[in-house]
Amino acid sequence: MRTQPPHFKARESGFATLKDFLREQELAYVNHALAQTNGDKEKAAELLGVSVATLYRKLGDEDAGN
């Protein structure tokens, strides 16, 4: 689980792209749900209103850096 502040891809303007920002926020929310359920992915998926497959896909995206 992520414990440090999010790190966005650096851009000349100093701003992250909206896509990068939203992805970081989504991952933070997924990690919050996992923390609330003590790492139980089925319960976290239920809290988030997504399937367990979707939750795994989103967590896999984090590992891939997407």
Explain how this protein is built.
There is one protein chain. This protein has a single domain (18-64), classed as Arc Repressor Mutant, subunit A, CATH 1.10.10. It has three helices and no strands. α1 (18-36) crosses α2 (41-48) and α2 (41-48) crosses α3 (52-64). With 66 residues, it is mainly alpha-helical. Residues 1-5 have low confidence and may be disordered. The protein has helices at 18-36, 41-48, 52-64. The chain is 61% helix and 0% strand.
Strand-helix topology:
Blueprint: H1 18-36, H2 41-48, H3 52-64
Helix pairs in contact: 1-2, 2-3
Mean pLDDT: 84
- Please identify, by name, the CATH architecture: Orthogonal Bundle
- Helical fraction: 55-70%
Tally the helices: what do you get? 3
| N- and C-termini, Cα separation | 16 Å
Principal-axis shape equals elongated
Structural class: mainly alpha
Question: How many strands?
Answer: 0
**What assembly state would you assign to the polypeptide chains in this entry?**
single chain
Strand content: under 5%
Runs with pLDDT <50, length 5+?
1-5
H/E element order: HHH
Query: What is the CATH fold-level name?
Result: Arc Repressor Mutant, subunit A
| Computed CA radius of gyration, to the nearest angstrom | 13 Å
Biggest sheet descriptor: none
